[in-house]
Specification:
Elements: E1 2-6, H1 10-21, E2 25-29, H2 33-42, E3 58-61, H3 64-68, E4 73-76, H4 83-90, E5 100-102, H5 115-126, E6 178-179, E7 190-191, E8 194-198, H6 203-207, E9 212-217, H7 221-231, E10 236-241, H8 244-266, H9 271-292, H10 302-313, H11 318-327, H12 332-339, H13 344-359, H14 364-374, H15 379-385
Parallel strand pairs: 1-2, 1-4, 2-3, 4-5, 5-8, 9-10
Antiparallel strand pairs: 6-7, 8-9
Helix pairs in contact: 4-5, 8-9, 8-10, 8-11, 8-13, 13-14
């Protein structure tokens, strides 16, 4: 199968390698021409996964239109803050009958919209399908969408212009919106086939074919099974789910909790404190999932507890790593400038808590991390204040 992977950061590159090793022909889109040259000539991605020799089945390009041409499946792996931008760039050339799998984890800060709904909104604007051939209209080559898909980050401009207010529309998470729908020709369109992947899947380990498992959620069971069959291997076990809301909310919120656990480790609060933050963090996530319309049991699965454990404890976790740095006084701007990576949990500390406030959900750990990261609250005071909150039942 020909698969297009949009975004050559660590996770996009790792899944491209996984797909190629399974026998697929992979086109990997990156913004940087220099990176594309290195992948094609040397089969390496020195910015990420520097110790991996990539399969010759992977061909990299900066041409977004060419990357989508003749593809049979699309994997979107840009940073969450860049999802709308890249989908706007893809819209007029996107093959609307081709299924898309989202790897990005986050909530759009300016609107509170989950990312599948962002994708659906943008791709349905521009992809017009010929009713007979199923071919979409073409567009000029897009070679430099300013989303840093190749570096997995947005540098110091991360989150700029995203705002903080939640819009009134949170999306429907249905697959009923067709791509390129028009009043004059309602039959010339096809429903978008969207799915989202999440789980304890550190790119460094997946790229090395180490054992891992994940969950793919879609409201269309055929789409979920298609990606399940595409990605499943002897070392990568894939489950399916219909709870796109729960899987997306878990993927965004667990990153905030991982920063908090990194802070706890960095401040030497002890193992009990780390376990407390992870457990109570999972309770916060569960409340938000349920309020947003997802299933609370999703939080006990791979996208919830599984990913939370991996992100809070692994040396590969950039969110936990940022928490360790934050405990020493490093700012988010300093950390991202040094690491050249986006800390998705830092962005989620704003977007997730905005969403929680809009839905009337209490998330004290996430609120605390938002205050410390973005609002200048003193770490030495705010973290202990969590212990002084009024007594409550464990489940509420």
């Amino acid at each position: 199968m020909r698969v297009s992977v949009i975004g050559a950061g660590s996770w996009g590159s790792a899944l491209a390698q996984h797909l190629a090793l399974s026998g697929n022909e992979v086109v990997l889109w990156a913004r940087s021409a220099a990176l594309v040259e290195q992948i094609n000539a040397r089969h390496e991605n020195p910015a990420y996964l520097s110790d991996i020799v990539f399969s010759e089945r992977i061909v990299a390009t900066t041409d977004l239109v060419w990357a989508l041409r003749d593809t049979q499946a699309v994997v979107l792996a840009t940073p969450s803050a860049a999802v709308r931008t890249i989908c706007q760039a893809m819209a007029t050339s996107y093959p609307a009958t081709v299924p898309l799998l989202l790897l990005s984890k986050g909530v759009e800060n300016s609107s509170g919209t989950l990312l599948l709904d962002v994708i659906r909104e943008e791709l349905s604007r521009g992809s017009t399908v010929n009713a007979t051939t199923g071919i979409v209209s073409s567009a000029p080559a897009v070679t430099d969408c300013n989303v840093n898909g190749d570096r997995g980050g947005l540098g110091n401009d991360t989150g700029s212009g995203l705002g903080s207010d939640i819009g009134s529309s949170l999306g429907s998470d249905t697959e009923s919106i067709a791509a390129g729908a028009t009043v004059d020709n309602p039959k010339s369109v096809a429903p978008l086939q969207l799915a989202v992947l999440s789980g304890p899947n550190h790119a460094e380990e997946v790229a090395k074919t180490m054992f891992s498992a994940t969950v793919i959620a879609s409201s269309n069971s055929d789409t979920a099974r298609l990606f399940q069959q595409l990605l499943a291997s002897d070392n990568f076990r894939v489950y399916t789910s219909s709870d796109t809301i729960g899987v997306q909310v878990c993927g965004a919120a667990k990153n905030v909790i991982a920063i908090a656990t990194g802070v706890a480790v960095g401040r030497k609060f002890g193992d009990n404190a780390t376990a407390m933050l992870m457990t109570r963090g999972l309770a916060e996530i569960s409340r938000l999932v349920e309020a947003r319309g997802g299933m609370s049991q999703t939080c006990m699965g791979l996208a919830g507890m599984g990913d939370l454990i991996a992100t809070c404890t692994s040396v590969h976790s950039r969110n936990r790593s940022f928490g360790l740095a934050l405990a020493k006084g490093t700012s988010i701007a300093e950390y991202e400038q040094h690491s050249h990576m986006v800390v998705e949990g830092a962005l989620a500390a704003k977007s997730v808590t905005n969403l929680a406030q809009n839905l009337g959900v209490e998330m004290p750990i996430c609120e605390t991390m938002r205050g410390v990261i973005w609002e200048g609250l003193p770490l030495q005071e705010t973290i202990p204040d969590l212990m002084k909150r009024s007594a409550k039942p464990e489940f509420y």
